[in-house]
């Protein structure tokens, strides 16, 4: 058995984002029955229901733990956490900022690619994670390996693979003007997580569905996938920003080169959008956009969603 708990399902900024007054954000802020507020994307996975692997450390980590009793310290222990390991899929703020709330001398293993570890190592604020407690370990892409936490096997295996993405926003100024923002192969990754004979894929950010990714995902049983934007020019249309999805490293859902079209012939059994931006109309339960994704067999992740495989 593998347990998956969606701790957070929104893109960077959360839903509603603090400074956003788009109609979707307003609906969430005012408690509309047609939507549900969401924290920034993170999931927890466990093979035994006791020891947990956290995938990405959201800025909302503290709130997410508070809401999920399974992640509370065990009764009778003065200091304890069921979270034995954290694995990062990129060094974006919405994937790493939660590490700063995990600094209270608690042991866990921090898994990331060499590139993501290098970004953390360059930021002295992360030395707040005391190396006497937090072991930083890296892994290679395209290999299947058993993930451990605090030196114990968690009963889960991981295969990480490169996904088209972008360097973190806060690293963009380091890239020479005019050069590519895609970063290195291990800058942005996707995961196949397996346990108890079952598996699922987790890809919270993806700029393009390459032929290689298509082959990898064909016939997959469960997929969480980048649902940031409904359309590539969503922020431009709303008058919020000049940035397109392409510029941000996220494919859109509805454009001709978007997710609905890209997955039309891929036979993925269960498909769930996650990392959904505060402006995306699929967040509204009865919107035409929600109906359009449902008609193509897609769901939208919600905080608190649980899947047991
Ligand atoms: C993204 O997913 O594009 C980033 O989280 C954006 C950000 O860091 O604000
Ligand atoms: Mn993000």
UniProtKB/TrEMBL annotation:
Q: Where is the Metallo-beta-lactamase domain positioned along the sequence?
A: 52-275
Q: Which UniProt keywords apply?
A: PQQ biosynthesis, Transport
Q: Which Gene3D superfamilies match?
A: Ribonuclease Z/Hydroxyacylglutathione hydrolase-like (3.60.15.10)
| Source species, domain of life | Bacteria
A Pfam family this protein belongs to?
Answer: Lactamase_B_2
The pathway noted for it is: Cofactor biosynthesis; pyrroloquinoline quinone biosynthesis
Q: Which family does it belong to?
A: Belongs to the PqqB family.
Describe its function. May be involved in the transport of PQQ or its precursor to the periplasm.
Q: What is this protein called?
A: Coenzyme PQQ synthesis protein B
Instruction: Report the source organism.
Output: Dongia soli
- Gene for this protein? pqqB
